[in-house]
Amino acid sequence: MAAGRRVLVGIFSRESEESYKWLINILISFKEVDVRPVLISNSRCLTEDISKCDVAILYHSQNRGRINITDVTDSLYDEELKLLSKWLGKENVMVVVDDLTDINQQLKNRILQHQPSIGELANELFLFSVNEKSSEALMSDDFRENKMKEMENIIKEKRKKKAPVHSFVPIGNLMPENSRINITGFLKKHAILISGLTVIFLVVVIVISRNRYTEHLKPTAGYPTASNMSTPWHPETITSSLPLNNSLHPTNLTFYSVDTKSEPGNGTQESPTSTFQANNGTHSPGRVSTNGSDFET
Questions:
Q1: Which strands form 33-39's sheet, in the order they lie side by side?
Q2: For a surface tag, which of 112, 151, 190, 239 has the fewest beta carbons within 10 Å of its beta carbon?
Q3: DSSP tag of 32
Q4: What is the pLDDT of residues 148-157, one digit of tens each?
């Protein structure tokens, strides 16, 4: 369920809150308006206070001796007026000059002429005299229907533009309307910048991808590498106990007789023996005896 679109009006001044108590009472009588007094000092940062307000009134009293709001010697609110206008917008800033002895259109025009920043940074300048603040005058219809009505209209206009505050977000509407508006506005405002950054990002990605592809192709341009060659087959090394020389050639061997005949005795049997000797290319005949048979070699 939507809550009321209440407007927070901040009154910024170097004067005490008591000086503009009458103005607070009138403002809170307006529909759905809250008031926040803010004391301006040289050591206080106003940014946080300004950010909490919807509309701002810069209040000055002639009891200080002069109407020195801005653009003049010893002006009191040069920076404050700029901050209010920057944060809230010109249409949501009003300037009030109080405790005047006499007010008329000529005085208002003169102030705007000598202090032009008021007209440039604020929506309206309001002048109030000492007599207007009497209890009878404040309650009069003339006062409320003329001067204060104009001030109320400025606040009412802000209330119309202010997005409603929801106590919950309905299902299917996960993002509040004001958030969507803010995001859409941001995208429209910075569309060129976002498009430029997107193009730069795509170019960088393409260049990096192309460089990696080129580096991958370079080794295969004519030079074999481990990546483009099949694994060669290496036969296992065959070892032999035979000497690697020509002495084992059949023509260079001499055979001697090998006696495999068993001799009886004591139940033992001699093992046959054989002897091979190199003879520098000559082959001598020999005899092999097996079971009593002799073979010439």
A1: 33-39, 7-13, 55-61, 93-100, 124-129
A2: 239
A3: T
A4: 889 999 998 8
Q: Which two tokens stand for residue 214?
A: 């080129």
| Selection from 162-166, 185-189, 195-199, 224-228 with the highest mean pLDDT | 195-199
What six digits make up the tokens of 246? 């020509």
Tell me, rounded to whole angstroms, the distance of Cα 159 from its chain centroid: 34
Contact indicator for 179, 185 with CB cutoff of 8 Å: no
What is the C-alpha separation between 114 and 6, in angstroms, rounded? 36
Between strands 253-255 and 276-278, the pairing is antiparallel
93 CA to centre of own chain: 34
User: What does the pLDDT look like over 188-212, one tens digit per residue?
Assistant: 667 888 888 999 999 999 988 888 7
- Beta-carbon contacts of 145 under 8 Å, excluding residues fewer than 6 positions away, are none
Instruction: State pTM to two decimals.
Output: 0.54
d(CA 288, CA 58): 138
Q: CA–CA distance from 277 to each of 121, 130, 248, 249, 286 (Å)?
A: 124, 146, 9, 11, 13
Domains, the chain, ranges and CATH? 7-171 (3.40.50.2300)
Q: Is 109 left (phi over 0), alpha (psi -120 to 50) or beta?
A: alpha
